[in-house]
Amino acid sequence: MSSILLTGPSAEPLSLGEAKIFLRVEHSDDDQLITALVAAARSHIEMQSQIALLTQSWRIVLDCWPRHGRISVRPGPLKALNAVRVYDFNGNAYAIDTQGFVPDRGASVLAFVPWAMPAPGRAAAGIELDVIVGFADAGSDLPEAMV
């Protein structure tokens, strides 16, 4: 299973102004550097924890359906399942109804009935699931321990 970032967060957990206040920087000479450091810090935390701090769109790619009927969504936490596609032997994508999946947002898992799903026709990367993950759209909505 692999995860591919489709759309990153629209903002960072800290604005440039908030970061400058914390750093006690009053000039604008380092604005670009400070902005890059905030983004790098968020990205590092997300990669290490496998948790998306801010709302993002990801694609999960699988070779086959798990036999136990559960797909662990990483990074989490799971917010929504947008689309599911299965590829045939010729590489044609077929949409699968998302209503066949039960999202467990607390565990960041998608549950489904494995024998009801069509088998992919290609041996590798035959299944794609597009999901929305993340805690919040803005830094103020993040859990206090993460700010």
Note down, in words, how this protein is organized:
- The protein has 147 residues and is an alpha+beta fold.
- The chain has a domain at 56-133.
- The protein is built from 2 helices and 8 strands, in the order E-H-H-E-E-E-E-E-E-E.
- It has helices spanning 16-23, 31-49; strands at 2-7, 56-62, 70-72, 78-87, 93-96, 101-104, 109-112, 127-133.
- The strands form 2 sheets. The chain has a 5-stranded antiparallel β-sheet, with no helix packed on it. Strands 3-7-6 form a 3-stranded antiparallel β-sheet, with no helix packed on it.
- Strand 4 and strand 5 (93-96) form a beta hairpin.
- The longest helix has 19 residues, at 31-49.
- The protein is elongated and about 60 Å long.
- The two termini are 30 Å apart.
- The relative contact order is 0.23.
Task: Give the helices and strands, then pairings.
Layout: E1 2-7, H1 16-23, H2 31-49, E2 56-62, E3 70-72, E4 78-87, E5 93-96, E6 101-104, E7 109-112, E8 127-133
Antiparallel strand pairs: 1-2, 2-8, 3-7, 4-5, 4-8, 6-7
